[in-house]
Amino acid sequence: MKLYRFFFVYFLLTVYLLTPVFSQNRSIQTLYPDLQKDKLILFSTEDGSLEILEGSKQKTQFEPKLEPPFGFKDIIQQGKPTFVIETVRLLPLSKPVSISRIYAALSRIRDLAGRTYQSASRGKEVPLFETASRIESLKRTNPVQDPVFPNNENIKIPTSDSFYISLKDINFGNSFYKVDMRTYDKGFLFILSNAKSLSYGIIPVIGENKFISILYVEPLTEGLLLYNQAGAQVGSLISSQVHMPSAIRKRLDVFIDWFLDGLGQ
Hints:
This protein is 27% helix and 36% strand. The protein is of the alpha+beta class. The strands form two sheets. Strands 1, 2, 5, 6, 7, 8, 9, 10, 11 and 12 form a ten-stranded antiparallel sheet that branches. It has a two-stranded antiparallel sheet with strand order 3-4. Helix 5 crosses helix 7 (244-263). 29% of the residues are buried.
């Protein structure tokens, strides 16, 4: 009987400790007050919701209502994109996720190296990035170590964090990006833009600062919200040969999988 009481008390204590963590999160209805049930179901599917907007004048559909409002579209339009990709995913949480853990996961740039995707042209899984690292600057591209966090739940998160990274891309070769990370409202923003032009061999594909991706992450009572808006300006010659929205989507999917692995979800 005493053993039964011990386990019962232990169970109640566990529930007591975990419940506040989840209950502190707000509902997805706060970010999408007019969201219909079928869209919520779509967000919760494996691939989530995907919209490809051919042309920069089309309106995005699912920007979350943050406070203060965040100018996703205004930032994306700085690159004068020929297309915009908008994705929303709502992932179930196996355990609570804090902003500290989100920041730590997005800081592990080296873990991008060797991550694979299914290549249609090669008919197999291939690594998207052969190497990945932070660098000192665009002028001094020596690799630097990612920060190490002994305790992911006890991190002093900077209000904003900016740095450059180098990726050896399977198609674009050595490519350089700027990363901006910041807390916002009750979530976290990860903004990626190409700091130098991207080329396929000798063929220019995307000009400097003409690719911008914004990822907003927030733990909700229903799960982990991943909202992404990305745009790129691509010349008509390349667009006629390669469906660039699909190519960009594959890269975004690799980034999302990398992030989720870093969270341990």
